[in-house]
Amino acid sequence: MADSSRKSGKHNRLRRTRKDWIKGNRERAQRIDPDNESIVHGREKMRPKGITIDAMGDLEGLPRGQVVEAESGRHDVKLEAGELLSCQIKRGASTENEQSTLVVVGDFVRVQPLEDGRGLIHHVEERKTWLGRNAAGEKGMEHVLASNIDLLLCIAAADRPDFRRTIIDRYIVAALLGGVTPAVVVNKSDLIEGELEELIREDVEVYGNIGYRTLFTSAETGDGIDELRDVLKGKTAVLIGQSGAGKSSLANAILGYDLRRTGEVREKDRRGMHTTISSVMLEIPGGGYLIDTPGLREFGIWDLEPEELDAYFVEFLDHLRECRFLPCTHTHEPGCAVIAAVESGDIDEGRYQSYLAIFESLKR
Ligand SMILES: Nc1nc2c(ncn2[C@@H]2O[C@H](COP(=O)(O)OP(=O)(O)OP(=O)(O)O)[C@@H](O)[C@H]2O)c(=O)[nH]1
Ligand SMILES: [Mg+2]
Ligand SMILES: [Zn+2]
Question: Of the chain's two ends, which shows fewer C-beta atoms within 10 Å, N or C?
Answer without folding.
Answer: C
